[in-house]
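Dear colleague,

Thank you for sharing your sequence with our group. We've completed the structure prediction you requested, and as agreed, I am returning the results in plain text so they can be pasted directly into your records. Please verify that the sequence below matches your submission; if there's any discrepancy, let me know and we will rerun it promptly.
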Amino acid sequence: MTATLSPYQDYDAYTPADYAVWKTLTERQLEVLEKYACEEYNACVRALHPVISPTHPPRFENLNEQLKAAHGWSIKVVPGFLPVDEFFGLLSTKRFCSSTWLRGEDQLDYLEEPDMFHDIFGHIPLYLNADYASFAQKLGALGVKYHANEEKVTQLQRLYWFTIEFGVIRQADGLKVYGAGICSSYSEVLHVFNDSKVEIVDFDLDAVLAQDFVISEVQNKYFAINDFSELWAVVDKLAVRWSE
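Please find the predicted structure tokens below.
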């Protein structure tokens, strides 16, 4: 499928090629993430079955039923990247934006712009987790409150990047991943655990806020939390700091 400006998901437009790509991507990720994703992410994926499964692209209306029942979230269809103020505005009202188009067979491992697989398979499952969902909403609310402050917006983007997109967590059985940019990418998962250049450091708010990133380059530094409750506590800490 090509990117669409439609404000809804035209499910009938998905082609056999789309089904095949979704199946390939989903089966591959489910297998690798069973070992490398955190227990919370895997539990959420299981809870969303069969809406999210290899057999078919997910219907957003069915996902919304489960998301709303859990913590009041829903999916907002968008054509592509949004201005940062609009994006934070959606998060603040418990809406996560997603495209409806799916990559082609020749783009299984790299995309310049996130597609539905990244948005849905990578991001959506953890919105069933209370701590994670609270963190995302509070982060969005801070983005709305300080939208006119360029420095603070940049820091919030860094916080988002090193948690929601590329977050890792230490659990009883070792390091695990939870960030959507990792969970939706087979090569990124393997990179985290097998590349000698990768640096895993303890999550530190000030270090994260100061850490630049380049969206088009593979990550080599990741900040590890120990529990999801740390995330919303971090946002609360930041809110207090900025209000003083």
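Summary note from our side: Confidence is low (pLDDT under 50) at residues 1-5.

Kind regards,
the structure core
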